[in-house]
């Protein structure tokens, strides 16, 4: 009987510890759709993305003023590398924008100069206007 209680106690403690170490990422989804990915004659890389909240709770995304703020990553030889964007002047509010369930918000970023290559958009999202959240990436797009 003592051995059984000891095993039950150990199992209970392991399960309790495991439940405390759950993810801090939003449990809902922010689904991106690339609307446009272009490179003009001056070499400016432009990404236009629609971010849809497919979850059941509001999400908060990074913003600059009243616009969603994202940045670009470029595929490097080994991994994705930050390319540019996501900069907000101090004169604008940087309060996150609330995106309700089944609603979407558009973000556009332009960075120059940029060589042809594979790029993706990135935005930061959190639940309940909390500090912890996650970065969300678009699919990659080849820009010539």
Explain what you see.
By secondary structure, the chain is mainly beta. The protein has a single domain (26-143), classed as Immunoglobulin-like (Sandwich), CATH 2.60.40. Helix content is 13%, strand content 46%. It has one helix and twelve strands, in the order αββββββββββββ. Strands 3, 6, 7, 8, 10, 11 and 12 form a seven-stranded antiparallel β-sheet that branches. The chain has a three-stranded antiparallel β-sheet with strand order 1-2-9, with no helix packed on it. A hairpin with a 6-residue loop joins strand 10 and strand 11 (134-137). The longest helix has 19 residues, at 2-20. It starts with a helix and ends with a strand.
Q: CATH fold name, please?
A: Immunoglobulin-like
User: What percent of residues are in strands?
Assistant: over 45%
| CATH class membership | Mainly Beta
Distance between the termini: 72 Å
- What's the number of structural domains? 1
The best one-word shape is globular
């Amino acid at each position: 009987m003592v051995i059984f209680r000891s095993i039950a106690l150990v199992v209970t403690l392991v399960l309790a510890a495991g439940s405390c170490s759950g993810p801090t990422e939003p449990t809902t989804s922010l689904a991106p759709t690339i609307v446009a990915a272009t490179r003009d004659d001056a070499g400016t890389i432009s990404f236009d993305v629609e971010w849809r909240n497919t979850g059941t709770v509001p999400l908060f995304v990074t913003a600059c003023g009243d616009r969603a703020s994202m940045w670009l990553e470029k595929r490097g030889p080994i991994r994705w590398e930050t390319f540019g964007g996501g900069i907000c002047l101090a004169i604008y509010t940087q309060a996150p924008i609330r995106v309700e369930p089944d609603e979407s918000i558009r973000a556009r970023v332009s960075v120059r100069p940029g060589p042809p290559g594979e790029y993706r958009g990135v935005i930061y999202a959190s639940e309940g206007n909390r500090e912890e959240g996650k970065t969300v990436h678009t699919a990659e797009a080849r820009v010539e």
